[in-house]
Structure formats: structure tokens, C-alpha cells
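Good day; I would like, with your permission, to put a structural problem before you. A protein sequence and the C-alpha cells that stand for its backbone fold form the material at issue. The record follows directly beneath this note:
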Amino acid sequence: MKFQIIDAFSDKIFGGNPAGVVLLDEGQTFPPDDTMLKTAAELRYSETAFIKQLAPEKFQIRYFTPAAEVDLCGHATIGSFGAMAEWNMVSANGSYTLETMAGSLKIEIKDGFVFMEMGEPVNKGVIHEEKKKAELAAVMGIGAEDIIMDPGLVSTGLPDIMMGVSSKEVLNHIKPDFAALSKLSESYQVTGVHAFSLSENGESTADCRNFAPLYDIDEEAATGTSNGALTFYLYEKGIIKPDQTNLFVQGESMKRPSKIMSRLSIADGKPKIYVGGVYKKLAEGEIYI
């Protein structure tokens, strides 16, 4: 099987969020789950995508962290279609169908930018009780007064807690208790916490940090699904408007700056969200399993 290492959401090597991308040989079925899990653990990236081509413009992808399979991963999807562009399997401008455990999604490639359709946005609840907000703040290493707006549990493929903080300075000072955050994530049945501060200079929509220790990811440099969820969260708050292009900056605290773009449109009365960005290939080779 061929593989590549792709830095997603960056046009520079060692920027963005790296993902492993493994392409199954023609006619090959997915390896046993245990084998894919061990491969992801061996590659040591937060997610590794396994691609099976179903038709010329249709693909199936399964996603594995070093700890478990997940339904969807934004940066690994961007990385997968970037890798397939490098392998000349997809064109620089085209539309494709992607089958995932989160459902069937559309992928659009335009002039080197890969945009993926998010799963249908779902608001799974709001943390409005002061005691619970204080608990969340304590786990994240900040004060309850630093949290703005009631945190929301939102999913566009994977559920996260959207936690807004009062400034970029507060965002940069977040230091979670990772063991406590894993337990809290389990109790809320979410992947983790997507923390953000609204842009203070108008150059972006928000600055973000993402924490998912429950899945062995203490912090992630770029998370497509989480920023898709944040797009919906801020749309419900009236901060994001339909059909505008949004820019989320993430990964600066990890010295892996990432730029994640999103747009939300209304179709048949329902919100539809696309998340995208560019990519850069770091390495490629063969996996012998």
C-alpha cells in the first residue's frame, strides 16, 4: 500500500496539521481494524486516513487515531485529497463523493484548495449552569470569568465543546488538566474542547486551540470538524453570516500555524457547511502489511 505524510491547512512544510494517508491497492479490502490501528500508532500522527477507491469520482475513507477509530477527520480528509492529487487520482478542479462513518459527503477541489462538506450540524446542548462552567474553566486552567457565552456542545461529524474565551491572551494561557479533561469529555460524550477567542484585529474570524486527550491528542494544530462546528455555533450566535468566507487560525501555540477556511450556506432551510484549505506533501513511500 502507498502512503504519504501531508501537512493539511498549510502551504508550508512543518505547518498545519500532519496526517498519515494510506491508499489501499486496487481491489483490496480494508485491513483488519487492529492492523489499521497499529499502523496509525506506528505513524504517530493524530489521525491516519485509509482510502479505498469505489469509482472514478467516489471514495471511502476510514480514520484512525493511535487509540481508536473516529467517524470523521477534517484535516485527514484535506490531506487525503491532497495526496490523491499528488498521485493524479483527482483533478485540480473537480467534485467528488466521499463515504465516511459520518455519512456521505461532497468534496470540492478548486485551484489547489480542498473543501469538504461537513456532516449536518447538530446542537447537542448548552452548558449554562454556573457550577458546570466553573468546572470546565478549572479543568482548562482558566477562571470562570474568562469564558464568554455559554459553551455549546456542537457536532458536524464529531462533537466538541465550543468554549469562547475573552481574549487571545487567555486563549494562549490555557493549560488543561488532561486527565480531568478526558473524564469531562467522556461525561459529556464529546471528543474534546475547541477553545477560541474572537479576532481582535479583524484579520481572521477567530483564533483557536483544540484539546482531545480522551483520544490521545493533547492538542491539535488544525481541526476541520471542530472549526465546522464552530462555524455553526457562531452562526447561531449571529456572529457568522451565511455565504461569507470565514478564517480560523489555529496551531500557533504549537508552532504549526494553520489557516482553516469555512463557509455556511442555507439550502432548503437547512445550514450546510464546508471547511477547507491547502496542503503540502512532506513524505511518501510504501507500507508492507
Observations:
- Helices lie at 33-43, 74-86, 130-140, 168-172, 178-188, 224-236.
- The chain has a mean pLDDT of 95.
- The chain has two domains: 2-117+277-286, 122-274.
